[in-house]
Amino acid sequence: MSLSLSHPEASPASSSAPRDPVLLSVAPSKNGRTAGKAHKSSKTATRRSYISNSIKTPFEKRMEKEKEREAVKQVEREMKEEAEAERERKRTALKERRERQAEKSRLEAMAAKMSAKKLQRLRKRQGRSKKING
Q1: H or E element, residue 53
Q2: 123 close to 133: Cβ distance less than 8 angstroms
Q3: How far is CA 54 from the centre of its chain?
Q4: Of 21-25, 56-60, 81-85, 109-113, minimum mean pLDDT range
Q5: Nearest residue to 134 (alpha-carbon basis) of 106, 102, 111, 100
Q6: pLDDT above 80: residue 96
Q7: Binning pLDDT at 50, 70 and 90, where does residue 55 land?
């Protein structure tokens, strides 16, 4: 597209020979030359970058990832439960061992405190208890 304009210095009175017109080019637009729109570019669809990728992904893929995440969580839960059960088992074993030691030391102290005759009488009454006899 071109527009023909005559040169401003060229006037019919100044010279007898006509001058060639100066050609100016106009940038094309989408619909050809539209007044005042030659500098505009054609528009494209809006890109919504604020929407998260999780919404853009298909439902099946999201459900698949959710199942994987749930499976990993289940394994983690089982591992935590096993570790907790092991800690609880160790705790109860330690508690029982301490109780047995306390009972043993109490019986030893009681046996040391008693006289030999008293110990004999006690054995007779209790019917030879294994705790006191040792």
Answers
A1: helix 53-56
A2: yes
A3: 13
A4: 21-25
A5: 111
A6: yes
A7: confident
Fill in the DSSP letter of residue 25. E
For residue 47, give Cα distances in angstroms to 32, 44, 50, 67: 27, 9, 9, 30
**What b/e string do you get for 78-99 counting C-beta neighbours within 10 Å, with b at 16 or more?**
eeeeeeeeeeeeeeeeeeeeee
Instruction: Please give the structure tokens belonging to residue 83.
Output: 């570790």
Q: What is the reported pTM?
A: 0.40
- Is residue 122 classed exposed, middle or buried when 0-12, 13-18 and 19+ CB atoms within 10 A define those classes? middle
- Rounded to whole angstroms, the maximal C-alpha distance in the chain is 159
Structure tokens at 45: 């669809």
Q: Are 68 and 76 in contact (CB under 8 A)?
A: no
CA atoms within 13 A on the CB side of 66: 8
